[in-house]
Amino acid sequence: FKDVMERGDAGSEPDTNTSDSVRIMSIHQSKGLEFTVCCLFGFGKQFNMQNRYPLIFNKDLGPSMKLPPSLPEGDIESIRIRHEDNPIYKTVDNHNKFKQLEEEARIFYVALTRARERLVISATLKKSFDESLEKLKECADPVYEIKKSRSYINWILLTLSQNGIDENICTANIFDKGNVSLTSRFARASK
Length: 191
Known about the structure:
globular
């Protein structure tokens, strides 16, 4: 390595089309591609659903902004409710969050459909794997749970909690309290 660096010759680009090569890319970059084995990391990361802007826009609902209450200056009540949002702002914000969740679902679909034979998903959980599954088994409305979930792993765990884990298809490797790797083996029908 030292000799290569001293010569300034970094060599040729690696051939990523061979069967023993590894390609690292984002989910967006993988769209339209297919791989024998696909590893997905960071599936426990929370979606960024925060809105810190006082003015927001939605193409369907238009613009809206946080408005201060129209109470006299110095009124103690105005201090207490100063940061409350107006109803139109909340509606636009909720609509935008729903649209963002739809986009996360599209990205999730792309990620899960890149592998031909084996899919490995890695995530860090807030609770243990078993605790997370047990909590989701108790949910009365899976659709509501999907809408309020804020990470890909929650969507996967919800499905596993409702349908169980078929060990012929999926195995869960639990490394410690909150780190889990799910491996799925399957043969997709050829296109």
